[in-house]
C-alpha cells in the first residue's frame, strides 16, 4: 500500500496567517484612512452646527431689532439692523434686516442709501429672497422718480421669482413703470405676452392696456 501525502493548499488561498500578515502590513494606511473619515465627518458636523448657531443668533437679533422698530424707536432699530447685517452676512436674519433697513432709509427719502444697502445683501441672500430684494430696489427707484430703472429691476425680479404667478405680476409692474418712463412700445411687448396667458391674474388688465394703446394710436 502506498502512503498518501497531505494535499497542499493552493498558493492563492487566504489562510489565517496570510490574513494576519495582510492586516499587519496595512494597519497604518487603514488607520490613517479611518482617521481621515472620522475627522472629515467631525469637521462637517462642526460646520453644520456653526451654521445653525449663526442663523439662530441672527434670528434672535432680528427679533430684537423688530421689537425696537415696532415700539417706535427707529434709531435703535437702525443701529441693531446695521450690526446684524455686518455680523451675520448670508443668513436669513441678515437678509431680512437689510430689507427692513432699506425701507427705513426710504422713509427718510434716502433712496440711494437704501438701494445700496440692498445691493450689499443681494449676493448672499437666500434664494427665496432674491425676487423680493429686486422688488425693493425697484421701489427705491420708483419712489425717487426713476421709473426706467424701476422697470429694469422688476424684470429681474420676474426672472428670479419662483412661481409663474409671481413672474407675471412683476412683469405687469414693469410694464406700468415703462409706460410712466415714456417707453410704451416696450410696455406693449410685455402686455401682449401677458394677454396671451389665459390663467394669468393680469390677463384682463393686459388686454385692457393693449386696447387703450390701440385706441390712442388710432387717434389722429
Tag the structure with descriptive keywords.
220 residues, mainly alpha, Serine Threonine Protein Phosphatase 5, Tetratricopeptide repeat, 2 domains, 9 helices, flat, disordered N terminus
Short description, anyone?
With 220 residues, this protein is an all-alpha fold. It has 9 helices and no strands. It has 2 domains: 41-125, Serine Threonine Protein Phosphatase 5, Tetratricopeptide repeat (Alpha Horseshoe); 147-220.
Can you give a write-up of this model?
The protein is an all-alpha fold and 220 residues long. It folds into two domains: 41-125, Serine Threonine Protein Phosphatase 5, Tetratricopeptide repeat (Alpha Horseshoe); 147-220. 77% of the residues lie in helices and 0% in strands. The protein contains nine helices and no strands. The protein has helices at 16-70, 74-87, 92-107, 111-122, 130-143, 147-160, 164-180, 184-195, 203-218. Helix 3 packs antiparallel against helix 4 (111-122), helix 5 (130-143) runs antiparallel to helix 6 (147-160) and helix 7 packs antiparallel against helix 8 (184-195). The protein is flat and about 100 Å long. The termini are far apart. 31% of the residues are buried. Mean pLDDT is 83; it is low at 1-10.
Amino acid at each position: 500500500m502506498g502512503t498518501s501525502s497531505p494535499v497542499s493548499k493552493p498558493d492563492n488561498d487566504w489562510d489565517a496567517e496570510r490574513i494576519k500578515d495582510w492586516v499587519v502590513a496595512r494597519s497604518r494606511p487603514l488607520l490613517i484612512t479611518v482617521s481621515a473619515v472620522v475627522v472629515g465627518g467631525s469637521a462637517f458636523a462642526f460646520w453644520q452646527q456653526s451654521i445653525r448657531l449663526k442663523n439662530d443668533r441672527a434670528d434672535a437679533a432680528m427679533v430684537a431689532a423688530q421689537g425696537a422698530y415696532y415700539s417706535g424707536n427707529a434709531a435703535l432699530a437702525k443701529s441693531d439692523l446695521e450690526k446684524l447685517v455686518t455680523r451675520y452676512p448670508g443668513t436669513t436674519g441678515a437678509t431680512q434686516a437689510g430689507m427692513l433697513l432699506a425701507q427705513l432709509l426710504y422713509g427718510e427719502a434716502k433712496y440711494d442709501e437704501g438701494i445700496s444697502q440692498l445691493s450689499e445683501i443681494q449676493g448672499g441672500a437666500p434664494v427665496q429672497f432674491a425676487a423680493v430684494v429686486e422688488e425693493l430696489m425697484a421701489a427705491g427707484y420708483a419712489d425717487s422718480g426713476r421709473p426706467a430703472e424701476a422697470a429694469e429691476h422688476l424684470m429681474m425680479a420676474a426672472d428670479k421669482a419662483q412661481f409663474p404667478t409671481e413672474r407675471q405680476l412683476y412683469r405687469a409692474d414693469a410694464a406700468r413703470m415703462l409706460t410712466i418712463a415714456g417707453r410704451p412700445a416696450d410696455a406693449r411687448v410685455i402686455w401682449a405676452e401677458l394677454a396671451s396667458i389665459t390663467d394669468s391674474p393680469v390677463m384682463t388688465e393686459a388686454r385692457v392696456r393693449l386696447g387703450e394703446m390701440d385706441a390712442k394710436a388710432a387717434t389722429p
